[in-house]
Design a protein that fits this description.
351 residues; mainly alpha; 2 domains; 2 strands
Length: 351
Amino acid sequence: MKVIRWILALIFSLSLSIVVFIGIPLGVLTHIIAKPERVKLFVEDSGIYDNIESILSEVIPLAFMGTEGTVVSGEGDDYMAVLIAEIVTPEFLKTNIEESVDAFYSWLEGESEYPQIEINLAEDKDKITQILVLSLSGRIKALPACTGDPVSLESVNPFTMECIPSGFNVDNFEEDLEEQMLAELGSSEDADTVFEQFIFKTKPEDFNTELTQNARSAYRIATFVPTIIIVLVLLLLLLIILLIPNIKSKFTFPGVLLILVSLPASLSKIIILPNIGRMMDTNVLSPALFNILEIVFADILGRVSVVGCIVLLIGMVLIVTGVVMKSKTKNKPVREKEKKKETEVKEVKST
C-alpha cells in the first residue's frame, strides 16, 4: 500500500513540477494582459514614449538601403526623422496607444463588435507632403547607376525608375517635386486619397464572427489562468502531502521539490538579463529599441523572479514544518513514558 501511495505521490510531484515551472512565467504574462490598465502601465514603463524620437532617428535611415545592404544616409534622412518625430510625439503616441488598447479590450469584453481603432498621421498635411518627397528621393538615392545606352531624362519616370540615369540630379528633382506636390495636394481631388494612406483605421469586415468568438474565449481563459495555476498548485500539494506515508516526508519532500522547481524562476533575472545581448541579434536592432526591449525583459523577469521567490519561501516553510513535525513525533513516546512513570509512582505512594 505504501508503494502505491509513493508512486501516486511521484506522479503528482511530476505534475506539480510542470505546473510550477510553466505556470510562473505564464501566470505573470496573463496577469499583465488581463486588464487594459496593466497593459497601458506596462507600455508606459517600457520608456517607448520618452525614447520615440531616438528610435525614429535610428530606424529611419534603415529604410533606405543600398544594393549591397549599405545605408544611404544623409541630411534628408535626418530631416525626415525630425518631421516624423514632430508628428509622432510622445503625447500623440501615448494617446493613440491607450485609445487603441481601450478599443481592443472593449471588443474582447463584448462591448463593441470590433476594435474601433483609428490613428491619424495626416493631420499636418505639409509635413506629410515633405515626408513623401523625402521618401521618394531616398529610394532613388539607394538605386544603382544605370548601365548601357543613355536615356533621355525627359522620359524618366522617377516613381518607377529602377536605376539612376546619367545626368539625373536628385537634389534638383527633390525641390521641384516638393513644389509640385504641395500645389497638387492643395487643390487636387485626389489629395484625400493620398492622405488616407496615412490614416490607419480598423474595418468591421476584418473581424468576422469566428475570429471574434475565438478571441473573446481566449481572453476569458487568459484572465483566469493565474487563479487556475494557484488552485492546481495547492491541490497537487495537498494530494502529495496526503499520499506520502512518512510524517517528515509529507512536508519536506514537496518543500524540496518546490525549491528546486522555482529556483530557475527565482534566478531568471540575474541569469538571463545580463545575457540578453548575446541571445538577441543586436546588429538588427537600433540601440534605442534594444534599450526598450531590455527594460521590457527586465520588468517581466523581475515579476517572474518575485513569484519564484514566493514559491521558494513556501517550499522552505514546508521543510521547516516537516522538521518540527518529526521532532514532535519523536518526543511524543518519551513524554508518554515519563507520564506513565509519574502515574505509577503516584499509585505506589498512594498505596
